[in-house]
Amino acid sequence: MQPELIADYQCKVGEGPMWHPLEKCVYWVDIPTGRMFRYDPATQDHRLFFEGPHIGGFTVQADGALLLFLEKGAIAILRNGALQYILDEIPAERETRFNDVIADPAGRVFCGTMPAPDHPSSLYRLDTDGSIRQVLGDIGISNGMGFTPDEKQMYYTDSPTHNIYLFDYEAKTGELSNQRVFVSTGDNDGIPDGMTVDAEGFVWSARWDGSSLVRYAPDGSQDRRVWFPARKVSSVVFGGEDMTDMYVTTAGGEDKDGEGPGAGGLYRINLGIKGRPEYLSRVRI
User: Fold this and answer.
1) 15, 90, 99, 142: which one has the fewest Cβ atoms less than 10 Å from its Cβ?
2) Sign of CA dihedral 185, 189, 191, 194
3) Quick check: helix, strand or coil at residue 81?
């Protein structure tokens, strides 16, 4: 099956697709323009949903609201079209923004940043009580994350190193330990970006400048590759009634015409492989 172009809003950096399990819709963002979009597969309607500050990533809260991770390290709840800030900024991140984020099984959120002019990027953990702490530093670009089906390990992507790491993960505390390389993608295979984990425990890694999604077995061996017409494939999430639809974001950058057909659009592909629902965040406001 070939990827199907669902919606093309000419995103400079289309990112962060998220299936909303309560609404049965998919949301995604264009980071530099602060736009968020929504697609309803039941009606095939897609539209601009929200426009505001730069949104690096977001999660779905247990009550259905969206938890947005923004520029300057700010965090806000989006509910009924209105933003309610729970953190105005992280002083160390004033010159940068959040990037990929993921809710964990307990409802905490691991939230990475882009590098700032004077320091590398970081990975933070937002706990359910609203407190936040740095858990990793000295990172190139904090990117895609995912959990193993047994919830005992977490994958983490540092894009410029071309590495996807694996950590031991303690669900009771949210602590990460025992960092090791799961996959090193090499310098000539695009840049590993967003990712997700399917129901069989296989990892799907998007390839920025690599025109593809790559599926890895739990032992790190490559299982398959799915090609896209757009060069900058940025992230992927499973959705749909049976969790076999894969929604894939791409980027058009400043040269949409030069980045391949449909660059900046949202794609869908169904390979008959079942995904796992992403965890809901449960941060108390």
Assistant:
1) 90
2) negative
3) coil
Domain span at 221: 4-270
- 3-state class of 39 per DSSP? strand
pLDDT at 256: 83
Whichever domain contains 25, its CATH number is 2.120.10.30
What is the structure's pLDDT at 187? 86
Torsion, Cα 282 196 260 263, to 10 degrees, reads -10
Torsion of CA 250, 251, 252, 257, to 10 degrees: -30
Q: Indicate the burial class of 108 (C-beta count within 10 angstroms; 0-12, 13-18, 19 or more).
A: buried
pLDDT digits (tens, 9 = 90+) for 58-78: 999 999 999 999 999 999 999
Output the pLDDT for position 198: 98
Instruction: Give 125's strand partners.
Output: 110, 133
Query: Dihedral (C-alpha) 111, 115, 119, 123: value to the nearest 10 degrees?
Result: 20
For 215-241, letters b (16+ CB in 10 Å) and e give: bbebeeeeeeebebbbbbbbbbbbbbe
Q: Using alpha carbons, select from 139, 135, 138 the residue that is nearest to residue 127.
A: 135
* Within-domain flag for 137: yes
Q: Identify whether 186 is part of a domain.
A: yes
| Count of domains forming the chain | 1
Active site residues: 193
Q: pLDDT tens digits for 111-165?
A: 999 999 999 999 999 999 999 999 999 999 999 999 999 999 999 999 999 999 9
Please report whether residue 253 resides in a domain.
yes
Query: How many Å apart are CA 48 and CA 109, to the nearest integer?
Result: 25
Query: Could you report how far apart the first and last alpha carbons of the chain are, in Å?
Result: 43
281 lies in a domain? no
